[in-house]
Design goal:
The structure is a homotetramer of 153-residue chains. Chain A has one domain: Roll (Thiol Ester Dehydrase, Chain A), CATH 3.10.129. Chain A contains 3 helices and 6 strands; from the N terminus they run H-H-E-E-H-E-E-E-E.
Chain lengths: 153, 153, 153, 153
């Protein structure tokens, strides 16, 4: 159960529509698997073209799914007419991103009028065993009265 | 001029070979444009499939080229028989990653036996005008006696 | 219950002795209130001379008790002959540090041979109500064969 | 020369007055030594009661002077009727804080209407030799129409 009440009842539709506009997420094969108020999960199957020199998932890909999971956890709590900006994030890479599936979880810790702070976690699932491979913190900004979609879309 | 003396004369070849093994870098179209001791630059042309919902480059892609630039800045100072691990990084996104070309710069600030700390910066070039769109700090670990290439390659 | 097994049975004595050598902790009035393997809490009563311009506890004091809590959470898992170094930490200040008592909690998330990563949290207790005022992540290094006390003590 | 134009001509007086209200800064013996638009330095002489277990300056004290230096670098660019909040900061401790004098420098990298991002650096001066002992990044928030001094002062 979430501790947060969304400002907009249609939060899940807004999150899914915005995620659908992130071409990078669909390009790497990431998909939204959980959308609750202040709590979002993204799943990414392993792909060889997402790897670094040791054949693990590249740290930037780990960061990308963590950034989007936290961003949408924050965005789910925003009013309907707002868009979002990642101010900053920090990620500790705890273990190699080795496995068949990667699950990024973003959870809002504090949601204010302007800034939201999220906890980030990325888990690797290898042969059914789950290992936390990254943990992080992220600060996001709510921009009111600014559409989330680019003009002309 | 760099303040660091590389432990291995063939540092540039090692950096280029390792970067060449990062399939994610070639997949997104990133390439190494500068390899000096403790100072590496990566260039990435804009591509629509690297974008987030506002059509700017996704924060995870910005993080990916910054992580690789800092990682290879550190790796350039390592002995020949060592590989590298990103321990953690933090990125402040200062401006939208909007433009035709993105340049990530990693510079070693301190290089110790085990840990190296790098400064990260990503610049966006839009119609000839350069804007710093991200700045960060990164901690990297030197693993001696461990090959940088995966077994069997 | 802790998920970590300490390398040294006398971990609590080592933590208390080292904390006792941190003159800054005793100067500000901080004391250890919990020492378990990978889990340490420090309590600090409010004092006017620890404040910033709004009369809340200074962010640096919040950082100091968080840094020591995380440092000793890591140190509790180290072998008897090792000392510790904070590599880096990041703190999000979620709410003003306003209250009569502040409790910093450090918890190890991952403890490796060389590096330990801790979660940091600082809570403010004001008139019996507890508010999380800071959350953070910290990376610590284990230095084996190096005494924790300075020479001649 | 600074790249920033202050919004308020009396910025230096405002910075000095606010710093004067930070009781923690005067308690540890820190003083402002440089106040330019977006660029502030704080000096701290070594004192035994500011030390950790190795007799170096405690990481929290290093963080405190870095946090205040960056905070006032940002505050120097704010309009006259605004106060400031540290949103978050990250610090890499590059070398032991060992010496007779410590100099924290905060420099604004980007100053927006709501958020300012600063670079942080702490140098240790030991027998005339300067060593960078910490580097960091900090995000600050401008709160307009809110006095920097607490009520009744």
């Amino acid at each position: 159960m979430s501790a947060f009440t969304p400002a907009d009842d249609a939060f899940a539709e807004r999150v899914r529509a915005s995620f659908g506009r992130q071409k990078f997420m669909s390009m790497i094969g990431a998909r939204l698997v959980r959308v609750e108020p202040g709590h979002v999960q993204i799943e990414l199957p392993y792909r060889d073209d997402l790897s670094q020199q040791h054949r693990f998932i590249h740290g930037g890909v780990t960061a990308a799914i963590a950034d989007s999971a936290g961003g949408y956890a924050a965005f789910s709590l925003f009013p309907a007419d707002a868009t979002i900006l990642t101010v900053e994030f920090k990620l500790n890479l705890l273990a190699p991103a080795e496995g068949q599936t990667f699950v990024a979880t973003g959870k809002a810790l504090r949601s204010g009028r302007t800034l939201t702070v999220c906890n980030l976690e990325v888990a690797a699932v290898a042969d059914g065993v789950t290992t936390i491979c990254a943990t992080g913190l992220q600060t996001l900004m709510c921009l009111r009265g600014r559409p989330d979609a680019p003009p002309g879309t």
